Amino acid sequence: LFLATLTYDTLRFEYEDFPETKEPVWILGRKYSVFTEKEEILLDVTSRLWFTYRKNFPAIGGTGPTSDTGWGCMLRCGQMIFAQALVCRHLGRDWRWIKGKRQMDNYFNVLNAFIDKKDSYYSIHQIAQMGVGEGKSIGQWYGPNTVAQVLKKLATFDTWSSLAVHIAMDNTVVMEEIRRLCQSNAPCAGAAACPALDSDVLCNGCPEDVGLRDRLPLWKPLVLLIPLRLGLTEINEAYIETLKHCFMMPQSLGVIGGKPNSAHYFIGYVGEELIYLDPHTTQPAVEPSDSGCFPDESFHCQHPPCRMSIAELDPSIAVGFFCNTEADFNDWCQQIKKLSLVRGALPMFELVERQPSHFSNPDVLNLTPDSSDADRLERFFDSEDEDFEILSL
After folding, report:
1. What InterPro entries does its record include (predicted)?
2. Among 25, 211, 287, 375, which is most exposed with the fewest C-beta within 10 angstroms?
3. How many Cβ atoms are within 10 Å of 392's Cβ, its own excluded?
4. 7 within a domain of the structure (yes/no)
5. 62, 31, 54, 35: which is closest to 44 by C-alpha?
6. Do 164 and 374 touch, CB atoms closer than 8 A?
């Protein structure tokens, strides 16, 4: 509990630097050498959006808590994995944050989507209040599955990002479902969603020529979240190689999970250690200015990141991937299929073309964003509960 109230400055000097090792360092699909690329590693880590406990923000729901210290760590980890998706979507994986450098507007647009106020798309206020519909009272601790379900619902309001969010339940990723979701003829928001077209043929971000639109099937950028349980009380060693491979994929958004009741956002690994950003630091809430720009240094972790042994990981996690295009998704599927051939690596989930027969009929699982049937079915289990909720289909 003491750690939760440490300030950012007191934490800065307590973290050990990266070990001198020949092992490669993997950060969200990028491979680095400690000996020749230490600055690049730290710059990559610092550029990730870091969300921590905050205090003195407007009361949640008008009368609720004004700080999330002690209960909001998994919500903050959910914000971090989703912020990484928005960074990839609007700024690109190669974008870097440099202290003191004037950032582009899209960067502040992304950051504003998570700021601690009630009308930000993915604020702690929105997540906590949307969680009430998932059976979580405000201030109650979430597991990885609950936060994934809530973020999926909130993303439907984010027309700027125009994301297709899919949560693969029952340890099964169904390619047909994802293609249906991403190719739905929803209007795209902004020219970035239609990169093949020149801006002068766009009308409100979409092509004026309907015939042209028919020839160009739109692919909504995909955020794929996979809640998993990799063992009963501790992680089964057979999954460790597969988990490492997830951080090697260019589509990687990392992993949310942690130790029991203490959530972390895992962004990579070195050797047998996971590299993570820790939300357990309380910082004052930041007041956004009218211009949309505000002091942003406290949203970037400027010390070497934390590390922990993979064996200590709580078995309840959610793995995230971002596929900006259909080609990205096809490539991801190929990598997952190859991974099943790696010796000594147990698959963490199954990749199938069509819905397995033990699922209900396709109509019930029609995964439109507002489908209440899908939401009911996707409440398969919640990882903070020791007991699984078995579906009666």
Report:
1. ATG4_LIR, Papain-like_cys_pep_sf, Peptidase_C54, Peptidase_C54_cat
2. 211
3. 4
4. no
5. 31
6. no
Both structure tokens of 61? 């729901």
The total number of structural domains in the chain stands at 1
Q: Dihedrals φ, ψ of 389, to 5°? A: -95, 115
Q: Looking at 135-207, which runs of residues are DSSP E strands?
A: 164-167, 172-174, 202-203, 206-207
Beta strands in 201-272 (DSSP E): 202-203, 206-207, 222-229, 252-259, 262-270
Residue 382 lies in a domain: no
pLDDT digits (tens, 9 = 90+) for 331-381: 999 999 998 887 777 899 999 999 867 655 444 333 334 333 333 333 333
Q: Are 103 and 110 in contact (CB under 8 A)?
A: no
Q: Any idea which residues carry the catalytic annotation?
A: 73, 278, 280
Phi and psi for 15 in degrees, rounded to 5? Answer: -100, 130
Tokens of 201: 């043929």
240: tokens are 């460790």
Task: Report which of 91, 229, 223 is spatially closest to residue 154, judged by C-alpha positions.
Answer: 223
The CA-based angle 282-288-293, given to 5 degrees, is: 115
For 287-343, write each residue's pLDDT tens digit: 877 776 788 999 999 888 899 999 999 999 999 999 999 999 999 999 999 988 877
Q: Which domain holds residue 90?
A: 26-183+219-356
Note the pTM of the prediction, 2 decimals: 0.82
Tokens of 290: 């009218």
Residue 245 lies in a domain: yes
Considering the domain boundaries, does residue 18 fall inside one? Answer: no
Nearest to 322 by CA among 268, 256, 252, 254: 252
